[in-house]
Amino acid sequence: MTLINTTISDNSAGIAGGGIYSLSGNPTLYNTLVAGNFGPPEGDTRPDDVYGAFDVASSYNLIGAIDGSTGLDGTGALYGTVASLLDPVIGTLENNGGPTETHALLIDDLAISPAIDAGNNALFGNFGGIQTSLAGAIDATQLSLIVDDATFFPGTVPFQVRIDAEDMLTISSCSKRSAAIRTCPLR
């Protein structure tokens, strides 16, 4: 089993590995978030995200509690333990504008999801034809940013823009009747 760009959260199990229980086969995880899952002995209160052996090639994952597993601490790994959980700072499962419900990576006054910009899509090429950099400059004479084909984007997509070496977080919100874009400096 290989998981790429996947979120596994808010699950529970009667045995170890409330998120993923690897019995055999050493699954591989890339750019995957596994956090907020629960297992025994307390059921819905003891953090239990992964259990068992995973492929050591797994990389750029965020694991809330890595206890009971091997192979998930490699390149780009972010992880906590049952004693010191890593909070993924994600929203509830809801419609965030795509074809399926998702857990949004959150940015608010209290916390920023550690999963933001923590993955590495260079390993897998350009998904959906999205251009990840702009050719040319944006200056006071050019006030718009044009995306040739936005059909791949879900209705709400946070993305990052760099203007004069200052990182800006841009959050777009679209519906059939309106579109709103808010840009703010990253701190």
Q: Work out the count of structural domains.
A: 2
Q: How would you classify the helix and strand content by structural class? A: mainly beta
Question: What is the percent of helical residues?
Answer: under 10%
What integer value in Å does the Rg equal?
A: 19 Å
Gap from first CA to last CA: 38 Å
Strand content: 25-35%
Overall shape? globular
Provide a count of the helices.
Answer: 0
Sheet with the most strands?
A: 4 strands, parallel
Order of helices and strands: EEEEEEEEEEEEEE
Uncertain parts = 126-146, 153-157, 173-181
Q: Using DSSP, what is the number of strands? A: 14
Spatial strand sequence of the major β-sheet: 2-5-9-11
Q: What do the pLDDT scores average to?
A: 74
Walkthrough of the structure:
The protein is mostly beta strands and about 190 residues long. The chain folds into two domains: about 1-125, no CATH class; about 130-185, no CATH class. The chain is about 0% helix and about 25% strand. The protein contains no helices and 14 strands. It has strands at about 1-5, 5-10, 20, 30, 35, 40, 45, 50-55, 60-65, 70, 80, 160-165, 165-175, 180-185. Strands 2-5-9-11 form a four-stranded parallel sheet, with no helix packed on it. Strand 13 (about 165-175) and strand 14 form a beta hairpin. It is globular and about 35 Å long. It starts with a strand and ends with a strand. The model is unreliable at about 125-145, about 155 and about 175-180 (pLDDT under 50).
